[in-house]
Every structure is written in structure tokens, then in C-alpha cells.
């Protein structure tokens, strides 16, 4: 009978001590995620969008941010030209394809972003 393998759990402090090797390390609920550091080649890869990154953004990170009460979590999908806006109680995202409006507080002017123009610029 095979024994179950133990998956190591990490803390942010442990990951901060990792060598600067050009990789990006993230810890989500103790699980370590490793990806290329952001840069030109990474941005190109994001456009071709990795399945692992999409899955991490839509599952692990989203659940963590919702559980922690983050007021809004956006997932920008360059391929589908849309933004998924998640709030703490959401079970489905609000899908925005036109104008994204965010007002973090009543006394702060809203941030507005024309997604059509943004996605047109990213395709240039």
C-alpha cells in the first residue's frame, strides 16, 4: 500500500528568504506557486495565458480574497476582452466588457476605465 505524500506548507517569511532566481513565488494558504517573474516575456506568455495561472486566479486566489473580505477582485481576461469582478459574497462574477467603474469610497471620485479602448490598445 502506497503512503500518501505530505505536501510542504510554506509561510510568506520562508518564501522571502528564497534566492532571487528570476522566478516569482506566491504562497496561497500555505501552498507554493512558482511562475516566471513579470517582464516582457512574461507579459507575452500572459497574452497566450497559462492554464495554471488562470486556474490559480479564479480558484485559490479568488477564494482567499473573498474569505479575507477584499471588497473587489478583478480578473482581466485579455483573450475574451472582459473583466470579471468578484465581491466577497459572489458565487459568480460580474462580467464587464464596456466601461469599468470603481468607487472605493463614497468621498473618492470614481475610477473609470474604457475596456474597449484598453483591449484595442493591447491588440496593437
Summarize the structure.
The protein is an alpha+beta fold and 124 residues long. It is 32% helix and 27% strand. The strands form 3 sheets. A 3-stranded antiparallel β-sheet has the order 3-4-5, covered by helices on one side. A two-stranded antiparallel sheet has the order 1-2.
Structural class: alpha+beta
On the 0-100 scale, what is the average pLDDT? Answer: 82
Shape: globular
Distance between the termini: 56 Å
* Count of the domains: 2
Number of helices: 4
Contiguous low-pLDDT stretches (5 residues minimum) are none
Strand order of the largest sheet: 3-4-5
Sheet bearing the most strands, described? 3 strands, antiparallel
**Strands, count:** 7
SSE topology string: HEEHHEEEEEH
